[in-house]
Each structure stands twice: as C-alpha cells, then as structure tokens.
Write a structure and sequence with these properties.
heterodimer, A: 332 residues, mainly alpha, B: alpha/beta, Rossmann fold, six-stranded mixed sheet, four-stranded antiparallel sheet, 36% helix
Chain lengths: 332, 277
C-alpha cells in the first residue's frame, strides 16, 4: 500500500478519536435539551468546573482559599494531603450532583414554563457564574491534571502496523490518551443507554423529555428528573473535562470545547444521543481529512477552526433537524 | 340534595344491574377554585363511592375539567377539602396524587409521542417498580422478576383493550381513537383505585364510542376500578354511569342517578335554555 494512503488512514483514525471527544461534550447538551428543552450554554464551563474541582481535590487545595485568607487574615492554601485519583473523582462527582441540585433548586425551578430564550439566557448567566465560582474556589492559574493515564504514541500499534507500508512508512501514530478516552467514552455511552432504556428512572427521564403533563399524571416528579438530568450532564462534563484537561491542561480555554460541540449538535440533531456520537465522529474525521487533503496543501492550514461550522451550516440548509433529530411536521 | 333511589344502607348501595357499590372513597367538600377574578368552581361538594362509575356533566365552561384537575392535583382549590380514603388530603403535587393511586387521562391526549405503545403503557407501571437503578440496569435477580411481573400486567391490559397489533408502533403515528385507547391503557396499567377520564369519547365516531364504553364498563367490572368521567354525549353518560353530577357556571345544579338528573328542571334548563320572563 502506498504510504500516502496509509497516512490518510492514520488521519481518519485520529479524526475518529478527536470526534469521540467532541461527541462527549455534545452528549451533555443533548441530555439536558431532551429532558427540559434547555440549551445549556454552561456545559463547557461545567466541564471546566469539574476538571478544576478534580485537580483541586487531588492536590488537597483549600477551596475559597483566597477569600478565606482575605477575610480572616490567615495564610491557608493546602490541607497538606493528596487525595488518590479514584477517590477524588468520586468526590468531584458528589460536587457535580450538589451543583445540579442547586441549579435546579435556585434557578430553573423558578423558570418553569418560561420561553426557551429566557432559559437559554439563564444558562449564559450560569456559565459566567460558574466560571467565576471556579476561579474563586480553586484559583485561576493553569493546572496540570495527572491521573496517571497513559500518554504519548502507542509503541505497540506503531510496531504492529509498520510493516504495512514501504520504507518511508513507520506505522500508525496513535496517542494512548486518545485510546483511553475512546474507551471511556464508549463505556459511558453504553451505560447511559442502558440506564435510559432499562431502569425506572431512565424510563421516567424519557417520559419527561416527551411530555411533562403526561409524566406528572403517571406519578413522575419533574423536579427530581431535572436534578437527575443535570447530574448526568455533570457526570458527562466531568468525563469530558478530565479527558480534555489531561490532554491540554486545566485552564479557562477548556470551557471553549462547548464551541466544538455546537456544530456536532447541528449535524446530529439536538435531541439524539446516537446523533451526538455520529455527529462528533463525522466532524472529527471531516476536519482532520479536510486539513490533510485540502487545508494544509492549498489553504495554508488551520482549517480545523472553521471547517466544522461550515459543514454544520451546509447541513442546516439541507437537513435542518440534523441527521437523527425529530422531523418537524406541521399539521394544518 | 337527592340520593340514589336504591340506597340500602349508609355504606353503599346496590345498582339496578346488581353491582355492589361500596363506601365513600373520594369526598369533595365545599370546593372553590378561582383564577384571578374568574370563579371556575363555586362551593361544590360531592362524593365518589368505591366501585362506582361517576359522571360529571355540564355545558362548555361549566368547570368540569377544573373539577377533575382539582381531584388529580393539577389545580389547588382556594377553599374546600379533599378527603380520600377517609383521610383529609393535604395540598399535593400531581405526581404525588398519582402515587396515591389516582390515574387520569386528558381531554387533549397526553401521551409520550416518541415512545411505542408498549413503552407508554409501561410508564403506567413506574410506581410499581421498587428495585434500585443499578440492579435494573444490569438486569439482576429481583429487578428481573419485577420487570417480568410488570411486563405481564402490561400485556394483560394491552390484551384487554385489544391493542396487541400496535404494541410496537410509536404512538405519534396512531389515529386519534387509538391514542385515546392507549391513554386509557396507561392509566389502567397503574392499577389505580380511582380512574379519572376527561372526555374519553370526545371526537370519536359511533363505533369507537361503543368500544370505549365497553372498555370502561369492563375495566370497572373486571378490575373493580372506581371511575369518574366527564362526557358530553348524554346517551353515553346515561348508559354508563351510576350517579351523575351536573355543573353549570361553576355551580352544582344536580346530583343523582341518571333518571333523577334527567328529570331535574334546573338541569333541563341549563341544557335547553329557559325563556326569560
């Protein structure tokens, strides 16, 4: 096989794995949008907040240290212990659930029945509030997240595939972290699907997503389901935050991954979990292939920033409901 | 106020066709419901007895649906008390009322359009599922057994309402009459003590109405479900119900057996109009 072709395959593989990351973020949007009709602008910041909290807990940071020191004139920064990764992840999950509960209790409970645009504005407010809260709790410096996940190119894959091409092909270069992320994402998606299909609360969640009134009449508490949905979105945000944070450090720009999820949602539809996954994969592969075949050679590169949006816009023209979205049929 | 002619004792009565009606299950006492300045229900009292089919009738805007919404917790009355199974009910949310064993259908059909008929009816069983989500998602032991029991019950009701052929069809694709039937199935799946039906036959043709009447009677007969229903079709109401409450402009103007109500002058006036003199 010619080396160019093999490099193309490598680009596709890397694109698929980037796509998994995009899908992970988009999934958080879909969960909340389906169940409550809220487009959660704060999903990206939730990922940042989750990653910040995880790092903070692992390093034994005192939350609100700056504030405490300012008020009481103390000089505390660290508890002086380090928390093992797994325990820290569980603790962060507890924080995310508490956050979900507060968001429902103090914000959206009071906005039930409001216009979608009002709810959307509320999530913008929430995004900035969370960003500030994250800074206040854990400080705004760039942090590294070290969970001990394997990183760097996989030697094994490189060696195993080196023989495919000629002398100038050295095998596929695939980051081990991407492989782990893909694996985690697959497990997460499968458990979410199992949860929503086979459990009482999953069924209730789908019911609420479909019709509030009918859900009430069969004995489902909307409030409980919304807290549940925000908690799940928090879990997805945590996973996305961990994977992106491990890849490129925990800092403000992490919250911008939300912008990567937007075209994925336009492509896959705002209400479809499979849509978010397929959409993410298409965009991941699409942007990498486009950069490899057209972008870099002819357009001076850096096409990855806008390619996803261009693809999404084309979709909007021809299939506004996305690949898997519910088709809107107006009956006259 | 009139009482059923066939009343035998304080605790229930025997109907003309020999069904035994039990004691008072739902007692509404001096209910008043206002929306701002509009009085939807004005000081209405009536009761529903165990095993009974109780109809609420009245012209458009009489407050019938509001009454049903008070019973099911969708509206909170400003005044009055709701007594259920011998206890005074505190103000409850609709989902809490549902968990107490009161199921309902809606005038404008509230089904889960994206789910299949089977899934829709399964949601009616939600309050009968007790095992934890972890056991459920990995499908083990008790969860498995519970799921089987719920499934059997659901299939039984699907058979009962003769909707086997559309079990796997998404509800959104069904015609109106069948949707109404699926909604009834979901309500019955909850095995409610009290079933509230808001115009179960609205917009149906004669044949569909006959089917629906039969299902309502059979549900009452077979499961012993107490039923309160709102209906416009007088023929249907008179055939189905044991006792009828008549409302007009938010007030109660009649209460009794179909025959008594039919001959009540105020009721005739409300339906046919009276000359101004």
């Amino acid at each position: 096989m010619p080396a160019d072709f093999l490099y193309g395959i490598e680009v596709v593989l890397n694109g698929l794995m980037a796509g998994v990351m995009y899908a992970l973020v988009a999934l958080g949007f879909v969960l909340i949008f389906k169940a409550s009709g809220i487009f959660n602008f704060a999903q990206g910041v939730m990922a940042l907040f989750a990653a910040l909290t995880l790092v903070g807990i692992m390093q034994g940071q005192v939350p609100f240290a700056h504030l405490i020191n300012e008020i009481f004139g103390t000089e505390v920064h660290h508890f002086g212990w380090e928390v093992p990764a797994l325990l820290a992840i569980l603790l962060t999950l507890v924080v995310m659930i508490a956050l979900a509960w507060s968001i429902q209790k103090f914000l959206f409970k009071h906005l039930v029945g409001q216009e979608p645009i009002i709810l959307f504005m509320a999530t913008i407010g929430l995004a900035y509030f969370l960003e500030g809260l994250g800074d206040l709790m854990w400080g705004s410096n760039i942090k590294t997240l070290d969970l001990g996940l394997p990183q760097g190119g996989s030697r094994w894959i490189e060696d195993a595939t080196a023989g495919l091409g000629g002398d100038d092909f050295y095998g596929f270069f695939i980051d081990k972290l991407d492989l782990v992320a893909t694996l985690v994402a697959i497990v997460l998606v499968l458990s979410l699907i199992a949860f929503s299909q086979y459990t009482k609360h999953g069924r209730a969640m789908r019911a609420v997503a479909d019709d509030h009134q009918a859900a009430l009449s069969v004995g489902i508490s909307l409030n409980f389901i919304w807290v549940l949905v925000w908690s799940l979105a928090g879990l997805v945000a945590l996973v996305a935050g961990v994977m992106w944070g491990a890849k490129s450090g925990v800092q403000f720009s992490l919250s911008l991954i939300a912008l990567k999820a937007l075209p994925v949602l336009m492509l896959g539809g705002f209400t479809s979990i499979p849509g978010a996954i397929v959409g993410g994969l298409i965009i991941g592969v699409g942007e990498k292939l486009f950069e490899y075949t057209i972008g870099a050679p002819f357009l001076g590169g850096a096409t990855e920033n806008w390619f996803a949006y261009m693809l999404a816009l084309m979709f909007l023209v021809f299939r506004p409901q996305g690949l898997f979205g519910e088709k809107i049929i107006e009956r006259v | 106020m009139s009482t059923p002619a066939t009343e035998l004792q304080q605790d229930g009565y025997i109907t003309a066709d020999g069904r035994k009606i039990g004691s008072v299950m739902m007692d509404l006492r001096s209910i008043t419901l206002r929306f701002g300045g509009v009085v939807a229900i004005q000081d209405i009292s009536f009761d529903i007895r165990q095993g009974e089919i109780r109809a609420i009738i009245g012209p458009n805007g009489a407050g019938k649906s509001s009454m049903l919404n008070v019973i099911s917790g969708f509206y909170q009355p400003q005044q009055g008390e709701v007594w259920f199974l011998g206890k005074k009910r505190p103000p409850l949310k609709p989902y809490q009322v549902a968990r107490q064993g009161i199921a309902r259908t809606f005038q404008n059909i509230a089904l889960f359009q994206g789910m299949t008929v089977l899934d829709n009816v399964m949601t009616g069983r939600l309050n009968h599922m007790k095992t934890g989500w972890l056991a459920q998602s990995i499908w083990l032991g008790r969860a498995n057994k519970e799921e089987r029991i719920n499934r059997r019950k659901v299939e039984e009701i699907i058979d009962f309402l003769e909707i086997q052929s559309i079990r796997k069809t998404p509800v959104g694709r069904l015609p109106y009459g069948l949707k109404k039937r699926v909604e009834l199935a979901r309500a019955l799946a909850a095995e409610p003590d009290l079933l509230l039906l808001d115009e179960p036959m609205a917009g149906m043709n004669v044949e569909e109405k006959e089917d629906m009447s039969r299902f309502i009677l059979d549900a009452n007969d077979e499961y012993g479900t107490t039923i309160a229903l709102i209906e416009h079709d007088m023929g249907v109401v008179m055939d189905l119900s044991d006792r009828v409450v008549v409302m007009d402009y938010g007030r109660k103007i009649g209460d009794g057996t179909p025959d008594e109500v039919r001959n009540n002058e105020e009721v005739i006036a409300a339906y046919l109009g009276v000359p101004n003199d």
